[in-house]
Structure formats: structure tokens, C-alpha cells
Amino acid sequence: MAFWASVASSTSDIHQSPKVMPVLNPNQRQFLHDELSNKSKLNFLVKNNARNLEDYYVRKEEVVDDPELLDKHDSFYHTTKSLLVLFQIMGVMPLRRNPPIPGLPRTGYSWVSRQFFWALFVYTLQTILVVMVLQERVNNFRDNPDKRFDEAIYNVIFISLLFTNFLLPVASWRHGPQVAIFKNMWTNYQLKFYKVTGTPIEFPNLYPLTWGLCIFSWVLSIAINLSQYFLQPDFKLWYTFAYYPLIAMLNGFCSLWYINCTAFGIASKALSESLQKTLKSDKPAQKITEYRYLWVDLSHMMQQLGRAYSNMYGMYCLVVFFTTIIATYGSFSEILDHGATFKEIGLFVIVFYCMSLLYIICNEAHHASQKVGLDFQTQLLNINLTAVDTSTQKEVEMFLVAIAKNPPTMNLDGYATINRELITSNVSFMATYLVVLLQFKITEQRGLRSEQSAKA
């Protein structure tokens, strides 16, 4: 450690040392900064008998927090608990709240917990029902090859939705430990935020919003399935019981993403307001350093969100992509063959529903990344550096470097980055496929017309 400090001090006089210092990454720069601060602090202690040490801030060592104190300031868990409980009841994500034992993470995931066995029980019952409905759907599709094309499209769409049930263990349970890490990061972050700023993070209106989204997820699922029961003659009432939890799960994923993105925006705003107050005080360099650590933790949480739910939302995007293409092609094809009917309107409703879910996820991720990244960076760039001391100037510069090197993006473990660009890329891909399919359809129609005219 002392080697780095001695190297940095020896380079202060450039004409004596022709060596060029290497470019350091943010972690190396922070390490070097701490070493220099520690060396200056020790020299100051020797010369001045340990007075006025606020100019020499060194990063504090991590300590194990009291679990009772973590629970007290875990506002995010208490306000969004209803959605977590809903996923536990549905067997989607069997997380558990650990007992308040020092050193034990507050949120955990275990393959032998009672939450997991309940999820396995619910999944088994649901799978039996899904297999029964899937068998009926496949037999109906195979035994009636002469049915209208729009009816076949409906059958294909709802058969594809049934397969999401078989992806649940891989898409959700497999990443349970990563989801627990994400929840614990939120728990630890809120207490750390309180220790640094002296004020807790408050999530206004998030509690009723979460409850409302839980109820709305199931109400919308019931409404969609009952509408299909009344619109489609071959859609039996008992089929709906297999689709209720699947559609509600898709709605719940969208609600979960919306809640997390909203929480990131609230946390970033609270951190920004505290930073503005700190900049008005005398010698704010020490606090800015701590705020930089808080911001980096917030950015890492956003990255962990995409890593923890990568399989879930990867499956989500695939279902939306496939369903939208099939429903759009089916509706246009039937319009070309028989004109517009209420069934085609039903297919357009499915397209609107899928694209709305995709838009909400991508748009909320964009807003969260902008609030945590660009808006925060703009605020730092607007600071008048000539009005602050040298230490504060250096801390602001390091803050900007940390933002540039740790972009707050939501990446699905390397598969895709969730932002507005994902919407435009999906729409362009779907338009390409639809143009090709419609070309085949128009060519087929022209061939049939030629045959009919030849026979006539």
C-alpha cells in the first residue's frame, strides 16, 4: 500500500522523474486516493496532535449491521411486500424472510424451504391442468384442419402461452439466489443511505400502488380469459383456469419491473437532494465521497436487477415477440381473405396488449437509467467548481468518472439491454417478418385467382 503512495508523491516534481504515470481505472484511483489521504493524515497527526482531521477522509471499514436496524429502515421491502407475497402464493418466486440473526442476509432463497415446497406443489397442480388443456388444444388443432384461419391463429397463440408454464423453473427458480442478492442490496442500501444523509428514503404512494397492481394483474387476467371464452366457440370455460395464473404472471412481471424502476428514480432523487444540501456547506468533500459510494451502489443495484431477472424477462420478451407477430399476421391475413370481423379486432387487442407490456418495461427502464445516470451527471456538471475548495473539486471529478465507468443500465445478463431502443428494434424485426409473410400470402391469393379464372 505504501508503495503506491510513495510512487504518487515522487511524481509531483515532473522534471526530476521522466516516468509517465499509467492511466488508472476508478478502483485503482480510489485506492490511491485513500492511501494518499491516509499518509497525509498520519503526517498531520505527528505535526498537529490530531486536531482538525476533517480534510483527510479515508473510506470507512464495512461493519455488520444490526438486523433489527435493517428492518426498521427497509421501507422498500415493507411497501412492496404485497407483490412478493403474491409471487410466493403463485409459486413464481419462493423467496423467504430470514430471522433477524446478525450476519445472516434478511432475504434468502433455499431449495429446502417451505416456500419452495409450496411453489413446487402449486406448480405441480398447475402443470397437470396445463397438460390437460394443451392436449385438448392440440387435438382440436389436428382434428379440425378446415377451420377458419383466424381460429387457427387463436389456437396457436394460446398453445404458445401454455408453454410458458414449463419454462417457469428455469426462468424463475434457477435465479432465485440472484433475486435474493438484489433484495438484500436494497435492504443494506437504505440503512447506508440513512447513515450518510441522516434521512431515510421514503417511497410515497408506492404501498397502495403495489397493492393496486397486484389486484389489477389478476383482474386483467380474468377479463382477458373470459373475453376469449365468449368470443371463441371452441374456448371452453375450464380452459380459463389454466390461463389465469399464466396471464397474471406476465402482468405481475410487468408490475414488478415498474415498481423497481420507480423505486430507483425515487432513491436517485433523494440522493440528489441530499447532495445539493451538502454542496452548500463548508468543505463538503468528505460527504461527496460517501455520496459517490452510495451512487455506485445504486448503479450496481440496477445492474443486479437485470442479472437477477434475466431469464424471466428474456422469456417475457420472446413471448411478446412471437405472439405479436402471429396475431398481426393472422389479423391481416383474414382481412385480405374475408374482410374485417370482430375476431380480427380481438387479434388486434392481443397485439395492443403485448406491445403495451413491452413499452411499459422499456420505457420505465429508460426513465430509471436517465434519472440515475444522465440527470445526476448533469447536476454535477452544473456545479461551479470555482466556488468550492480543491478537495471538493477533486471529489466532483472522481464522481463524474465513477458515473462514466459504471453506467446504470439494465442488461439481461448479456442477452439484451432494456431501453427504448429495444422497442424500435423489435418493431423493425416484426415489420420485416410480416412483410415476408404477407408477400407469401399475396402470392398465394394471386395463384388461386389465376386458377379460378382458368377454370372459368
TrEMBL record:
Ranges that cross the membrane: 116-134, 154-173, 209-231, 237-259, 313-333, 345-362
Membrane topology type: Multi-pass membrane protein
Matching Pfam families: 7tm_7
Superkingdom of this protein's organism: Eukaryota
Keywords: Cell membrane, Membrane, Receptor, Transducer, Transmembrane, Transmembrane helix
GO-annotated molecular function: olfactory receptor activity
GO terms under cellular component: axon; dendrite; neuronal cell body; plasma membrane
GO biological process: sensory perception of taste; signal transduction
Cellular compartment(s): Cell membrane
Family to which this protein belongs: Belongs to the insect chemoreceptor superfamily. Gustatory receptor (GR) family.
Record function comment: Gustatory receptor which mediates acceptance or avoidance behavior, depending on its substrates.
PANTHER family listed in its UniProt record: GUSTATORY AND ODORANT RECEPTOR 21A, INVERTEBRATE GUSTATORY RECEPTOR
Protein name: Gustatory receptor
Lineage: Eukaryota, Metazoa, Ecdysozoa, Arthropoda, Hexapoda
Gene symbol of the encoding locus: 106080454
